[in-house]
Amino acid sequence: MPAANPGSRSGPLDGISVLDLSTVGPAARCTRLLCDYGASVVKISPVPGRGPAPQIPPFYAYSGHRGMDRAHIDVRDRAGRDAFLSLASKADVIVESFRPGVVERLGIGYSSVRELNERIVYCSTSGYGQGGPRSQWAGHDVNYLAIGGFLASSCRRADGGPPLPGATVADAAGGGMQAALAITAALLARQGTGVGAYLDVSVADGVLWLMSLQADEQLATGSEPGPRHDVLTGRYACYDTYGTADDGWIAVGAIEAKFYANLCRELGCERWIDHQYDDDAQDAIRADFTAAFAKRARDEWVEELSSKDTCVAPVQSVSELGRDPQYLYRGAFVDAEADEIGSFRQTGAVLAGMLRPTEPVKVRVDDFTDTTRLLEAAGVSRRQVQALVDEGVVT
Fold first, then answer.
1. Any idea which fold 17-210+365-390 has?
2. Active site residue 366
3. Which tens digits make up the pLDDT trace of 133-174?
4. Sheet holding 312-314, edge to edge
5. What CATH code is assigned to 231-243+249-314?
6. Is the pTM of this model over 0.85?
């Protein structure tokens, strides 16, 4: 089994402090990544009951914000703004996801923070970026996938429309991973310059990058990539999904000729070996593949084909993931516990080089905060902190 964490238990981002002004979405995805790589993350939330209520995710979302501190600060109040800036003056990274222009109006934007801390790496995540004709548009994952060509390239529903994806691809990969990558690059650059950076992360830009193979093809050739345009979007039978006798599904990705030939032999479809990319034969190949896979249950096919270099895999439900033998071997899940909930499991630090928990993690789902301790550590006097608490500006 892979080592829980090679080398130091501190993680590669040990010593990096992050203030996260988000509650959900790409920014929250970003700081989850940073925390699992060892950064110290503080979730900054509004004071309950003061102003519009934020969107609060379920206790299990974003891995329950394990390993993160929490502070409630009303940044709309002048004293709350100053309290936040006290934290910002000592921080390495700030991540925010307000609509463009909001943090500047609140007095907590990059220019305000940089006056106090020129080393700050300030990351603004938004749907379409801080400027441009769409910058003020509201949106969510499906909107960014639509704008970036992802939905148009997906196989159609029965009514001809693009399907909804089964995961928040735009938020997670287009936004969260983009932001985390940009932040780590800026931190690396700061080692040489001593100066931080402002990062304008557009989730739609991230989707465009995810679609760059198709976009580059269109720009270079004038073609129109879409469903069944090429091997990766369902044009050929060697890259598709097939139903099995128990109403399960098998995913086939036999792109290379040798893998395709192996699959044809195992399915009793040898006559199609030399027709892998013959467009005129695809309907017939699919029909034969469909008939062959329908004869046996999903897991029987997986057991039979997985060791034969055929590029097949079972289409697993989410409920199967937690007992999948490969994920279990990789240590993908960890034990967690919360006072109000009890014990449960959650996705662990699964990406390469992350700091993996070695014991059950504690998930706090009550109203407990670390605000007082954090402000005092940032240089705010105990008397000033108590005054903020008494005024309801922080909790």
1. Rossmann fold (3.40.50)
2. no
3. 999 999 999 999 999 999 999 988 888 888 899 999 999 999
4. 239-243, 249-253, 312-314
5. 3.30.1540.10
6. yes
